Amino acid sequence: MPSIAASTNYDETLTKIEKLQHSDLPAAINLLKTIESEFDTMSRSQQGQFLVFKGAASIYAGQYQAAIDMLSRSETLLKDSDMLFSAYSYEATAHIALRDFNDAFNAMGKSLGLIERIDDINLKRASYLRLASLYSAMGIIEEVPTYAAKAYALASPNDVKDICVSKLYLSVHQLEIKSYFQAFEEFKSTRSYCESNGYPLIAYIALKGMGESKLRLNEPHSAVSYLLDSLKGYESFNFQLEINSAHELLSETYLMLQDFAKAELHAQYIMKLSDDSSNTMLKHGASRMLAKLNAQNKQFEQAYEYSRKEQQYNQLIFDESKMKTLAYQAAQFNANEQSREIYLLNKERELYVSQQTVKEREYTNMLMFITILLGGLFFLGILLAVGHAQKRKFMRMARMDALTGILNRGAGQELGENLFVQATARGGDFCVILFDLDLFKHINDSYGHGTGDWVLKKVADSLKSYIRNGDVFARIGGEEFAILLPYANEEKGMEVAELCRARIEAIETQHSGHKFVITASFGVSGLMADDLSLDPLFHRADMALYAAKSLGRNTVVRYSEALKCDQQATDLRRYIASTSIS
């Protein structure tokens, strides 16, 4: 009798914890602590539930690896499909936060494998929501509204939590496609519904979405109050991932409000976070903010250091994007669906064989063997051909800039280093040209990012024909490009740079739907006797580029030792501080 009473009490406590996790997380964590010492006296099913709830709390606290360890343990203890589905789903969430996308898809595959009946509405709805979450985290935004809408359609009025989550993902999708006014209205509706129905955490997420929507609409005074309120809400739940995100948005908002002290305070909070993959995107934004702030304060060494960090995080984001693409392609081969098809084919074959005589069976088995062998060889050939084609496609994608069609930063620098080694080994010259489009932010702000993308593609297309086959043309930043000229001296580099400058200035912009002038500033640096790699050439060309900016833009400057003079360095710093953004 005592064991039955204890079991009943545990069941009641675990049920209460499940409800509190969505309304009062600190209370749920306290309840978990009260029964943690009695873990060994629980039944296997109760132990599994306890580990699932503790794993979920660890996710909120940003302790993703600990969450994965606990959720993996729970899988061996649980038999209930609903609770197993929760374990797999939370595990997928933790893997996404750690950027382990292949493991995230594997966990998602196990959860989808639990759906054995087509009329199991609850599991179907939960799986649709988890798919929406997974695709949102992977950046596959076109799939998010599809699955969120499916989940919403399957929800009854009593399924308040799932309605909240569905509305949230539909709101997030509007933000991701840059429909900011619609996003604000949908986030506002989501917050009102979830707050009034007892799901404050989702309401705080919607509140942050309202703040970000106002920020993107250039309404920072409205944005800051929403973001501060959401931050307080996240702190009450100890939801570390969203706390970090709110700080990053507040840094950007205060910078727009020109409250530089608060902008730096929130940005420094982000920079003090650990350098794990879940913080890469946040640190990219924070380092960009701090670079601007230090430039405005004439602290140019710190500005340069933060700018360098921004480029490092940008490369990590690019590498992560490649990982997402590869994981998504790999997930197209659904192991569970393949196993189900093989099982059905085997059942059909057994039924057919059972209806034949001994003589017919021998003949059929021989024929089947030949058919399967030929089919298997044919299918293997198709897989090898497709795999080879996909591999070549991904290799091209990894090297090319998707917008302009020229080499990206990583591929351009790698090829440039190889050509540099070859040229210097043979005693040849080498020249680096860096150029940056003038007032590009003004084009984006005035005519929209679509016009900005048109400008970038048009500039790349206009210059391709002027680049020799043996030269390197790469996009190395937002509006910054590099041209690497092996076996060319500075005079040749100046000639090429001036030709490119004139070509850019001559671009007709009327086809973009607007009338404006495109110009660029160029910095040129040639090989010096003590140069052992491309880095010194890039650094000198970058200094020359900044000098070109200070001279009024739309000009070409060759690096010289005079650029290091104190007076010219002071002029350059004053120019950077007054313009902030080229």
TrEMBL record:
Residues 283-310 form a coiled coil. PANTHER family: DIGUANYLATE CYCLASE DGCM-RELATED, REGULATORY COMPONENTS OF SENSORY TRANSDUCTION SYSTEM. Its EC number is 2.7.7.65. Keywords: Coiled coil, Membrane, Nucleotidyltransferase, Transferase, Transmembrane, Transmembrane helix. It catalyses: 2 GTP = 3',3'-c-di-GMP + 2 diphosphate. The chain crosses the membrane at residues 366-387. It comes from the Bacteria. It holds the Pfam family GGDEF. GO terms for biological process: cell adhesion involved in single-species biofilm formation; negative regulation of bacterial-type flagellum-dependent cell motility. CDD domains: GGDEF (cd01949). One of its GO terms (molecular function) is diguanylate cyclase activity. The keyword Ion transport does not apply. GO terms for cellular component: plasma membrane. Its cofactor is Mg(2+). NCBIfam families: GGDEF. Gene3D superfamilies: 3.30.70.270, Tetratricopeptide repeat domain. The keyword Transferase applies. Residues 428-561 form the GGDEF domain. This is diguanylate cyclase. The gene is ydaM_1.
